[in-house]
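> agent: user asked for a holo structure of the chain below bound to zinc ion. Plan: (1) validate sequence alphabet, (2) canonicalize SMILES, (3) run complex prediction with ligand conditioning, (4) return tokens. Step 1... ok. Step 2... ok. Step 3 dispatched.
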Amino acid sequence: MGERIKIVPLGDIDGGLIMEVATQVSMSFGTTAIVNEMQQYHESAYNRQRNQYSAEAFLRFMEGVRGETPHRLLGITDVDLYIPDLNYVFGLADEAGSVALVSIARFKKGSGRSVERAVKTAIHELGHTYGLAHCNNNRCVMYFSYNLSDTDYKGKEFCIKCRKALDTRIPSDRDKVKIRDEHIKEVMCA
Ligand SMILES: [Zn+2]
Ligand SMILES: [Zn+2]
């Protein structure tokens, strides 16, 4: 088993949304996703002038809940996040630290799509932690979302190019699955 994904609810996030994100990221990256106990977000991440929270401060805070075993971390918060150069961000990732973050603060607009938007953003940010860059294909989950229309238009799947790049970066697990599949095939043919 490769590195698991640990989902960290930052604040009181809807349990159904968390479970759906866990299921979908686990399928996308072919690994187990576990849900950590809820963490109270850091008030020191709050910026009074902007009335928003620093996404970078959240990423640093999450490093503290990594635990002993290596995990990829995915934080989910309901507060609005910013980074210095942008008005807001839907998410952020630290590739080197294997930490990703999603804010669902803006996903309720237009209603009924919050979960779908959270899933796409979670897969996108975790994709960065596997070294994937932004993709020009506006249907690919690695496409950069400037706004919610972009998020709604793209799928939760990787395009062929990104999927190939991802497969080379996901360690051993996939090889094991492949070997097992081939083995089954042999048995079936016999
Ligand atoms: Zn991105
Ligand atoms: Zn792509």
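> agent: step 4 complete. Summary for user: Residues 28 and 123 are 7 Å apart (CA to CA). The two ends are 29 Å apart (CA to CA).
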